[in-house]
Amino acid sequence: DFTMTLYLRHYWKDERLSFPSTNNKSMTFDGRLVKKIWVPDVFFVHSKRSFIHDTTTDNIMLRVFPDGHVLYSMRVTVTAMCNMDFSRFPLDSQTCSLELESYAYTDEDLMLYWKNGNESLKTDEKISLSQFLIQKFHTTSRLAFYSSTGWYNRLYINFTLRRHIFFFLLQTYFPATLMVMLSWVSFWIDRRAVPARVSLGITTVLTMSTIITGVNASMPRVSYIKAVDIYLWVSFVFVFLSVLEYAAVNYLTTVQERKERKLQKRFSCTCGIPHSKTMMLDGNYSESDANSLAGYTRNQMAPEEEKQEKIVVHLAMSNESNSSRKRGLKGHVGLRIIQNTHAIDKYSRLIFPGTYIFFNLIYWSVFS
């Protein structure tokens, strides 16, 4: 719907209202004389509500010239229907029209036309709307046919409205884009930090759902897809896929660790080491003493009756030095740090932003 307040002015000539005048000046009357003379029975087609302003009196003026020309003016507010197409909302332009027509007189009895064409329609230059930019006004006229009564002259006031996009950029597009970018942060978080990545994914999904619900609540219930729906639902899919991405990473990590545990159970920890010697060692021996005792068996080192006071230790003797063991430990730790980032996370850091940027380029090139 749209509501318009206008000054509706009719011009015609009625010789019965002519009067002699020496100075050729017109006479002006108020609405009381309108009920006593003939006036056009113009009504607004497809109007839902309309009224003539009556504060402090009826806003009606009747001006009669000596030769019988009549100017009939009234101040009217009308709310009419406009068939809008929201398929490109909020990047849309709407064309609405206010239609005027005689109710009783056909085109054979009464002919309606614009007195000065497009110049007949004049608007306030300061007029502005909160959501729309008024691009242009223009007038047209044509015949309307009714099967039971005939042909009628119909006048059109056409105007084109273009919606302001900045409001929707701040309230819809920008928050949705930030939520999608926020969901990408989980790709840089350690895959073992389950609470952090799961809470981040759920938060972005719920926020996107709130944005979609808020936009649809302020829109008419239409059965087709709007441009804003495409953007929001694609953004929602990106956020949802980031959650599924971590679910895949977590599942593959669990499967990999399960396989590693099976391999560790299958092979002992001393597999691949040259020799293993058994000896007796109490708490007073140092590491160098333990190395010097390599090669002795338990029976050679202590008598049978001292077994209660000794500790049996299995030492895996290797030819590697302490420095080489430290280097191997460092390499192992570095390998584990690298493995904390799954290959899926590495690819997602490039695929998700690249795909979303490509979608934005297509979206704004099509709907702008």
Automatic annotation (TrEMBL):
Pfam families: Neur_chan_LBD, Neur_chan_memb. It is a multi-pass membrane protein. Residues 1-164 form the Neurotransmitter-gated ion-channel ligand-binding domain. Keywords: Cell membrane, Chloride, Chloride channel, Disulfide bond, Glycoprotein, Ion channel, Ion transport, Membrane, Postsynaptic cell membrane, Signal, Synapse, Transmembrane, Transmembrane helix, Transport. One of its GO terms (cellular component) is postsynaptic membrane. Residues 172-318 form the Neurotransmitter-gated ion-channel transmembrane domain. SUPFAM superfamilies: Neurotransmitter-gated ion-channel transmembrane pore, Nicotinic receptor ligand binding domain-like. The chain crosses the membrane at residues 165-186, 198-218, 230-252, 350-367. It is found in: Postsynaptic cell membrane. InterPro entries: GABAA/Glycine_rcpt (IPR006028), GABAAa_rho2_rcpt (IPR008059), Neur_chan_lig-bd (IPR006202), Neur_chan_lig-bd_sf (IPR036734), Neur_channel (IPR006201), Neuro-gated_channel_TM_sf (IPR036719), Neuro_actylchol_rec (IPR038050), Neurotrans-gated_channel_TM (IPR006029). It catalyses: chloride(in) = chloride(out). Signal peptide: none annotated. GO terms for molecular function: chloride channel activity; extracellular ligand-gated monoatomic ion channel activity; GABA-A receptor activity. Its main location: membrane. It comes from the Eukaryota. NCBIfam families: LIC (TIGR00860). Belongs to the ligand-gated ion channel (TC 1.A.9) family. This is GABA(C) receptor. It comes from Xiphorhynchus elegans.
